């Protein structure tokens, strides 16, 4: 009885917080910003050896410019992205004062102590990742009050005790990860759409039995009374009745307030836009993207593909973006689109194209990405007539390294893992520093309603598709490794994946051609003549060998991306710097190897058509 009363009191407090926060009733003394105060309290209890929070200033009135802090257009703190920052210490209970927080990423640090129960006050929180730390103690039951939570990871910590029933009852979570802790006791029925509890040796089946060890009782936990007076029970019953009535009344009031506010919000936007937001992604009104792209003018088209058309756009704040207008907008339902976009948005890596946001109406599905000023690798390889190519030999090696790092992250560090299924030069973009950025990842699953974990309708580009995927529809990480091998050959040769003549696709493909020349020890023939002989013969041989290993017919014979990356990092390391521009200058001064006159070399083969895409979204 007492436990139920405690839960109801917590609900009462949360309801009051929700009402006050939703209507902006939280007042502060003059000159005090409660969000600044909360963030400074968080900073105070953390040990920041890498000085990543040095820019956080108690005298600031606007934390939106601080490192790792994201804000809404209204100026409220909505995200803390502090993953892998070398932070230690504890997480302050003041985190619960960031009433508008929607995303909190603290994974892969060294934080310890308990998870603050005050996180349960963050009623707008949608994404919470505390994995890979040293948090101890029990999972706060208050996390079960976070009804908007869609992604919760507490894995690889030292959490103990039972799985709270309130957390298990959350129905809106797409992925719940409690794996590799010290949880114990019976496993409740978990209502999340997907979850993992592996690595908890003391958990047992959901039905308690004599073999199921209950979690140890806390020292300060009250033992329920076995005997009590009628007066005690009458008082408790009365308190319960009054509390229930009060809480129900407040909850009805909260529901009315949020209904009224959401109605106002809905009427203030274009009517055809769905009103939901996903994690830390921004939901763009359709009219805003119309305006940004000049009503999707053909003059702003950056490219076409199996997924749709990509337009260059300029937002109201002058930010340049790339807007991908997806084909077949009704191909996926609202729930599937929401789930898959959430997964794509959570993949954050310097060599992956970050998803800014999305737009969804009954007739449209659009994704918004940062604009890449140097286009794609395919664009740069097509450049002709330049005295010096924009992609010299060492820069091409750096591009291969960056692309392999991005794919490695998708395969081994995303949960669930993401298989790209269309790795090619056109999908490797280049930022202002010519850093490789892998684009279009996750979209194959997003737009394939028949998708499963293993077998799908074939999506991809002829010449880049692994043989087992083309014949059986079965894809895996090794499917991407095959595509990366072809990409590496494109970087080396500067050519497209297919050999063509008279408009008809011929049997000969770049892979067969390279294999033949490799066996004949004539690798100088395959090198892009735009390089004008400026390449290293030893590096060329290693790169070709790696590409041929990646494109072996049987997937089990192909290396993993981690093994591919190790070889490529060894090649790039020979230049003595990770800066591709400095490396290029050093390399150019060091070597230019002309094996023979290049006007005679590439007459044997000519690649004149774009690799064909299979019909439909990939």
Account of the 3D structure:
The protein is α/β, with parallel strands linked by helices and 618 residues long. It is built from 15 helices and 24 strands. α1 (2-22) runs parallel beside α4 (230-267), α8 (393-412) packs antiparallel against α11 (477-493) and α8 runs antiparallel to α14 (561-573). It is globular.
| Strand order in the largest sheet | 1-4-6-8-10-12-14
* Share of helix, binned: 25-40%
> Main sheet?
7 strands, mixed
Count of DSSP-assigned helices: 15
Number of strands: 24
Shape: globular
* Uncertain spans: 12-32, 213-226, 260-279, 448-459, 498-508, 586-591, 593-618
Distance between the amino and carboxyl termini: 56 Å
> Taking Cα atoms only, what radius of gyration do you get, to the nearest Å?
28 Å
Structural class of the helices, strands and pairings?
alpha/beta
Mean pLDDT: 75
Q: How large a portion of the residues is in β-strands, by DSSP E?
A: 15-25%
Short description:
This protein is α/β, with parallel strands linked by helices and 618 residues long. It is globular.
List the helices and strands and how they pair.
Layout: H1 2-22, H2 34-44, E1 46-48, E2 69-71, E3 77-81, E4 87-90, E5 103-105, E6 110-113, E7 127-129, E8 134-138, E9 151-153, E10 158-161, H3 165-168, E11 175-177, E12 182-186, E13 195-196, E14 202-204, H4 230-267, E15 282-283, H5 286-292, E16 301-304, E17 308-314, E18 320-326, H6 334-346, E19 357-360, E20 365-370, H7 377-381, H8 393-412, E21 428-430, E22 436-438, H9 443-446, H10 467-472, H11 477-493, E23 498-501, E24 504-509, H12 510-519, H13 537-550, H14 561-573, H15 580-590
Parallel strand pairs: 3-5, 4-6, 5-7, 6-8, 7-9, 8-10, 9-11, 10-12, 11-13, 12-14, 15-19
Antiparallel strand pairs: 1-4, 2-3, 16-17, 17-18, 18-20, 19-20, 21-22, 23-24
